[in-house]
Amino acid sequence: MSQEIEVKQLKDKIKYYENIINNMSAPVIPSVVPGTILIPIAGYMFKERFDMIQTKALQYAGDNRDTEQAIFDFTGVSVEDVASFDYNDLATEIFKLNSSLKLMGIRPMYVGFNPRFVREIVHAGIHVEIETYVSFRAALKRLLQESNQSLHTIR
Fold first, then answer.
1. In the predicted model, is pLDDT for residue 154 greater than 80?
2. What is the fold, at CATH topology level, of the domain defined by 27-146?
3. Can you give the residue ranges of every domain in the chain?
4. Is pLDDT of 5 > 70?
5. How many Å apart are CA 75 and CA 87, to the nearest integer?
6. Is 152 exposed, middle or buried (0-12, 13-18, 19+ CB in 10 A)?
7. Are 108 and 114 in contact (CB under 8 A)?
8. pLDDT for 66-96, tens place per residue?
9. Cα separation of 112 and 118, whole Å?
10. What is the average pLDDT value for the chain, to the nearest integer?
11. Among residues 51, 26, 49, 50, which one has the least CA distance to residue 39?
């Protein structure tokens, strides 16, 4: 086998695995609460990844017009995962994500921010207007209360 063919095969394999990683990096999961999706986020954060998360959420909402709420779960993101991300840039990305979803009529909700992460954002003087909850469970509980439902009444 020639070296050129081997290099092309390796490049194709890298592209294949990059595609798998991108698809797994922000899955969109329908919730037990009707019209609600969960997007768990874990690991290293960077601008391109935020763009991909926003694109996936908007595409899902466009394909599933009954989507009313999107809950982004940052429980799996540590301070080290955003260490190289400027906090002003991070706040800007969250603001853009929030605004995009609101323009589609979707209520964005955020859960699981690390206390140290929050402290860094506040310490940097960054102000972001977002709806946050301690956990996914707390956000779901709130949504159920607002609709006078319980898990027993959902079909």
1. no
2. Transcription Regulator spoIIAA (3.30.750)
3. 27-146
4. yes
5. 17
6. exposed
7. no
8. 999 999 999 888 777 776 777 778 778 888 8
9. 10
10. 85
11. 26
**Sequence-ordered list of residues with C-beta below 8 angstroms from that of 106, at least 6 positions apart, any chain:** 61, 67, 68, 69, 70
| Beta bridge partner(s), residue 69 | 36, 107
Residue positions counted in the chain: 155
- Give the integer Cα–Cα distance in Å for 94 and 53: 11
CA quadruple 24, 26, 28, 29: dihedral sign: positive
Alpha carbon distance 41, 53 (integer Å) = 9
The answer to whether the CB of 41 falls within 8 A of the CB of 77 is yes
Locate tokens 């999706």: which residue? 37
In the block, tokens 């853009």 appear at: 96
List the structure tokens of 68.
Answer: 């009313």
| Residue 26 to residue 146: CA distance in whole angstroms | 27
Q: Rounded to whole angstroms, how far apart are CA atoms 106 and 95? A: 14
